[in-house]
Amino acid sequence: MKLLETDVLLVIDVQNDFIPGGNLAVTAGHEVVPIINELAEKFRHVVLTQDWHPEKHSSFASSHPGKQPFSQTEMHYGPQTLWPEHCVQGTRGAEFHEALDIPRAELILRKGHRPGIDSYSAFFENDRKTPTGLNGYLRERGFQRVFCVGLAFDYCVRYSAEDAFKLGFDSVVIESATRAIDLEGSAEATRHSFRRGGITLVPHLGQ
User: Is 111 considered catalytic here?
Assistant: First the structure.
């Protein structure tokens, strides 16, 4: 797969709390770091996203008395999975993994900072209409194809890839550079959604 000047690599939430040992660890999440570092060397343009929650964020199970992590609740924008506290602003868990080495990244987009709404996608909050501003940035820069990698495959990577496609970008997910949480079959559901929805899923760059 030949890379073009209008391609951008979107590196999603490679943060300590999503790595084994973190508060919301993705199984084998650390394995994506060297793969992403190598991929980033191949792209002229790279954007990083960073989950960036205030304390007592509404998506935390601890903010809902009697609720347990990974249970569901109904928010004003629809159903929401409740998570362990993670990626709290200014904490070590919110920092990028120390081995992530992408000094040429042109933008760091922080998301999930509004107290009352979660944000899986790099493009929209979970109400599916409040923009993060990433679409405008990519449009003004003239990008046309978005390659998505990072954590987690079946949540933030999935929603970002699907929104990129809906917004008119060519959307590609490099599966070897992602890992899944896989709640109740969510990883396979993501693959099915990609096949149905026009997102290109490749095992490695160039395949």
Answer: yes
CB of 135 within 8 A of CB of 143?
Answer: no
Q: At residue 80, does pLDDT exceed 90?
A: yes
By C-alpha distance, which of 167, 133, 169, 154 is closest to 49? 133
The average pLDDT across 27-56 equals 97
Single out the catalytic residue among 111, 118, 154, 163. 111
pTM score, two decimals? Answer: 0.95
Catalytic residue among 7, 17, 51, 156: 156
C-alpha span between 13 and 27 (Å, rounded): 14
- Candidate list 13, 17, 118, 154, residue with the active-site label: 13
Q: Report helix, strand or coil for 80.
A: strand
